[in-house]
Fold these 2 entries.
Entry 1:
Amino acid sequence: MTGREAGGDAELKKELDATLHARRELGEEYESALVDSFLEKVEQRVDGAVDRRVRRQLAEQQMVVARGARSPQGAAGSWGERFGFGIVSLVLAVPLSAIGGGVAHLPGLLVAWAGIVGVNVVQAARVTPSFFGRRRGKDSDWED
């Protein structure tokens, strides 16, 4: 835990204590407003933490790209990503097939599966740049 996070926890504890004290003084009729105010402060804190993490990850990825290396995940990450995406696709295919087939019969089923296949093709092309027989490089339209 960093100093900033520990300080944030102490600040939130103070805010919670102040909110509870104000609730005791003001009564139940102000409870909703006090809780909303406290939750807004928590949300701001979480948003700030997420923003910092995203900026840090983007900076790390930019450093990797600037050095000319592969993506930070490497080959193992792309395998896990493909496997996970395939599992999620199969799990979601069941209800999508049922909905499409139940609502529009065969045409609905075909549209549902066309969408499933389309999403998987796009994912495969994104994870494996040579999927369509085209290699991503400096002359690619995919990168700046």
Entry 2:
Amino acid sequence: MNQRKDTYRAALQRGPDAAVPRPVKVAQLYTRYVRVTIELDTGLPRDLMRWVESPVSALGRAGAAALRPLRSAP
């Protein structure tokens, strides 16, 4: 129990892992009346692939399983 408390306290003192700023790409557009700044997170494609990979592969396996009996039918 004490080890768990110590681990928890150490984690609280470390702070969140998200405190490190992620690299961003900045695109700026200036016109006479409008100023627009767009910041793109460079880690977004990697995060998006991590979130989407599992559901897409599950759909692919389900589709393959559904089509398997159709292929074997005469």
